[in-house]
Amino acid sequence: xxxxxxxxxxxxxxxxxxxxxxxxxIGLMPAPERSDGGxxxxxxxxxxxxxxxxxxxxxxxFSLQEIQEYLISAQELTGQRELYRQIxxxxxxxxxxxxxDVTLDAQLRKLDEKIGKILALKKDLTELQERVRxxxxxxxxxx
Length: 143
Prior knowledge:
Blueprint: H1 6-13, H2 17-25, E1 33-34, E2 40-41, H3 44-58, H4 64-86, H5 90-139
Antiparallel strand pairs: 1-2
Helix pairs in contact: 3-4, 4-5
């Protein structure tokens, strides 16, 4: 398995080394193994994990606390999916699918909250822009 130094991870993710260490410190990413000399040795999984954190932060607009909640929920869903694949009994499969549905419902509610806030902000800005343009039209000299 290939390992990466923090400089490599920073280059691949666009994060600073300080941010990577901070995310590790607050539990947003699992701690990497260390070499005998104490150097952090990251894996491809760490890089992929950081990309999910970046997406949650930048694309979804999540706070660090919301990212932690999102990642916990995503890990829970992954575990539920892995268990589902191992179950043979249809009744147990149904129960696991219901658990997954509850987890997905919680994730979707969180996204809907964010989307609602974004749409409300967009509406406010659009209304302000319309008023500004109306003022421009009133005050702009006519030929």
